[in-house]
Model the fold of this input.
Amino acid sequence: MTSNSTKVTLLDLACQHQPLETEIMDAITRVVRSGKFIMGPEVQTFEEAIARYCGVPYAIGVSSGTDALLAALMALNLKPGEGVITSTFSFFATAGVIARLGARPIFVDIDPQTFNLAPEAIRHTWDTLRPEERSQVRAIMPVHLFGQCAEMAPMLDFAVQHGLAVIEDAAQSLGAEYPWAGESGGRNAGVMGQMGCFSFFPSKNLGGFGDGGMVTTSDAALAERLRVLRVHGAKPRYYHHAIGGNFRLDTLQAAVLLVKLPHLDRWHQERRENAARYNALFAATSLEEFITLPVSIYEDRRLRFPHIYNQYVIRAQQRDALIEYLTIRGIGTAVYYPVPLHQQACFTYLGYQKGSLPESERAAQEVVALPIYPGLTPAQQKYVVDSIEQFYRGA
Ligand SMILES: Cc1ncc(COP(=O)(O)O)c(C=O)c1O
Done:
């Protein structure tokens, strides 16, 4: 039914890497020849480049986005029994790191338009907590999902009001901007709270050749603590005043990411153009009774990258049947995420009931991510949209 010309994978990294192959191989060869696989000079160079890119004084390279979140919570000295408010509609790591430290994830529902933590839902959840539970809450962890920042201003106000830290899970949003009062260019994801956490998992807009992550902060003391925590809490080596982990970013990953970083804005731009093309193609189909398109809510605020479309996620009626239909037609899709975190089996002990966070539960039934990567062709996009139209209209 499909031919190679009409096959559309969810992500094609080969077309991104092919033009950079010589440069990347040279960078890898340099590391191989240097033998400095652990904390080689590329790690610091990459940290400085990310700090500049985000507009923040400190960036600390770590082993993954998950470890970025874990190290950030450890740097806060989050203790067993304490609480962290976070989104229930995210990748597992967001909540997993909280629970791994013996702390309690306090799940909050999402804004149905953006899939991001809803500030009014934070207030609502806060009001349901008993005074002794409130006093245990240490932080809010918003997730900038799919490449668009959560609504940070009210959240930061709330955090200040209640003495909470804010740790941004910016794993999917390196380079996304948030409109900031008094600043024409806005602020970058990951630099608005005390710490920002990034992932360089291969499918991110800036992806490595394996796992990698970064924590950003404006706080010199936190930066120093993170640097110590990523080497088992040792300073100097073999002298441990804190218990950390092996959270280092590999030199090889830093070397590859340094080659890719200068191209990131162009890739963001291509993803944005692809999103605009999907929007136009879908507008011409009149499928609005069946599907809902993603919304970039900061678009008219003079930002360069109000949404970087790490994922282009639609809501679709008969979602699972649609996915099956698209699969047969050679179109790759993914569901981020089929089960909200409060309904994961491992969090049963937290006692959330079905229906307790309804927007997230509904989103889990309806969302599907379409191919959006840089390099996707207009013909491929048209094939995706035509296929979706045929599914609903039976044309
Ligand atoms: C929202 C979110 N948080 C955390 C992570 C964890 O990052 P990593 O896979 O690099 O550990 C990811 C990425 O997979 C993510 O999408």
Notes: The chain has a mean pLDDT of 96. The longest strand covers residues 183-188. Residues 64-66, 90-91, 93-94, 143, 169, 171-172, 199, 201, 211, 213 surround pyridoxal-5'-phosphate (CB under 6 Å). The chain has 14 helices and twelve strands.
